[in-house]
Predict the 3D structure of the following.
Amino acid sequence: MKIKLLISSLLMIGFTVLTYGQTDKFYPKLYKNYDSYKETSLKQRRIKHADIQPLINPLKSNPNYTVQKVGESVEGRSISMISVGTGKRNILLWSQMHGDEPTATQAIFDLINFLNSDDFPDEKKLILKKLKLHFIPMLNPDGAQQYKRRNALGIDLNRDALRLQTPEGRTLKRMRDSLDAEVGFNLHDQSRYYNAERTDKPATISYLATAYNYEKDVNKTRATSMKVISFMNDIIQNYAPGQVGRYNDDFEPRAFGDNIQKWGTSLILIESGGYQNDLEKQEIRKLNFVSILAALETLADKSYKKIKTKEYEKIPMNDRKMFDLKLEKLTFKKADKSFTIDLGVYRYEVDNTDHSNFFNRSQIVDIGDLSTYYGYETFNGSGYTITPGKVYTKGSSTPTKEEAIQLLKQGYLYYQTDKLIDHQDITFPMMLVSKEFMPQRLDLYIGLNPSFLLEKSGVITHAVVNGFLIDLEKGVDSSFRNALYLK
């Protein structure tokens, strides 16, 4: 008996070494070769229903795929499901349940390109032989059209699992039930202001094995979610170390994720957060691609079963302590007194009329001791004093970036003009103002647009223009998006 147990243990060790040996070779190559699978027609977040139809339609004539119209949105846009694989175990993946959360939609088409390539034949054969994959790349096409979270009725689809009052929600429920899906992937975007708890790392990818009751019990179905997530985390840590978080698992009885877990499908939620210098989330899209493939591989070979659920609990929780810009220890003078303060700034996105692009309108969202918070960009303002800017009234046309820098050094922050220019077109670092504009006394408060100068030893060295920090010696870099037009 002891000999049999020893042999069994050695075989298991051998299998583990083989599996992880293959993994060690597969994922680095996959990550390195990603650009050859990336769907180049999708380059930014504001994806519309019309943008993905040219990618779906050719698959209808591909014998390896089945493409079905499985539903319609409130406004009559089609909801498609793309299926591939010959396995008996059904895996359902859906994206853009929220219309303004499209990162994984792009990754789905990258995955399809990967499956259509000649690369990694052994890994693909395993996945497609053991599993049948069903992709719903855009569940909420009406929301996507307006780049908004909710559907055309104003309903959050992820809170419609009980009433099923939306056609989109009914479609998702019908697909889960008809497939009797073993695993479901609920693919979302989350705020870029989440960080991995107690670190300055953004929660670039966050995972959740949703609870199915208030007690947050762990049954076999939920344990599978936890184990697969643990495997994905191990892989992604190689490419975004310390930038993985665990989403709050409080039970929400109306949510699809929680109910799908309750209905017997192991639910894996992936949230795409923020990443340094990745405004359009293209690096995060790549991490989604690798993450989902990691999950599919471990599901196919069932290697996840060897993982302990306690590994899931080791993933740090999400926290929300990131700013776009954090200004530390600035001096601010008020009532003839000097105060030392920190400022936290968000750069909010405001869409244009057709929701194809946006401009930033920044706000101060916190003031005071922000020592436990972090910034994508952080500036130590020790010795720097916040200084109001003057209005430049002698211009005949808008300045170049270089001219604007020289004016900022002279203390001018506002450029008077009789031209009306869209905010997104003001790419030089000064606020445009009308002739009627009157600058008010500089004060600081929550909700204020942060636009002021920074002075040190009597010299203006930096400007904050619409929440963007500009080093006047270095000039304007690529992170500056736009100033504003003020009447």
